[in-house]
Design a protein that fits this description.
This protein is about 70% helix and about 0% strand. With about 110 residues, the chain is mostly helical. The chain has one domain: Helix Hairpins (Orthogonal Bundle). Helix 1 crosses helix 3 and helix 2 runs antiparallel to helix 3.
């Protein structure tokens, strides 16, 4: 699956969420929702690592929660980028992959 295909699927889920919960996804919403999800990821991480109350969850449940929150943050990054017309692959090439050694060395 390409990033574009993945983003389209996530966008559909987000649109359904918008309709189901009668919210409006404004430009601010994308960033604020990402921030909310990052907070939930932080909480899950702290709980799993014994730095916050586990609230009665087992280690397996906390591991599942951490995994789900990572998926939420990743999805909301894709939504935020899409809403701001950012091509993530191009951005990664320019920001991160420029540090990789080139394959042009003989």
């Amino acid at each position: 699956m390409t990033v574009k295909e993945l983003t389209a699927k996530i966008e559909q889920v987000s649109q359904d969420y918008e309709q189901t919960h009668n919210i409006t996804r404004t430009a601010d919403w994308y960033l604020l929702k990402l921030h909310e999800e990052l907070g939930e990821l932080t909480q899950a991480y702290l709980q799993l690592n014994g730095q916050a109350r586990d609230k009665g969850f087992t280690e397996e449940q906390l591991r599942t929660k951490l995994t789900e929150e990572i998926a939420d943050v990743f999805s909301h990054i894709l939504l935020f980028a899409h809403n701001n017309n950012v091509n993530l692959l191009e951005a990664l090439d320019k920001k991160w992959f420029k540090f990789l050694p080139t394959n042009n060395q003989e």
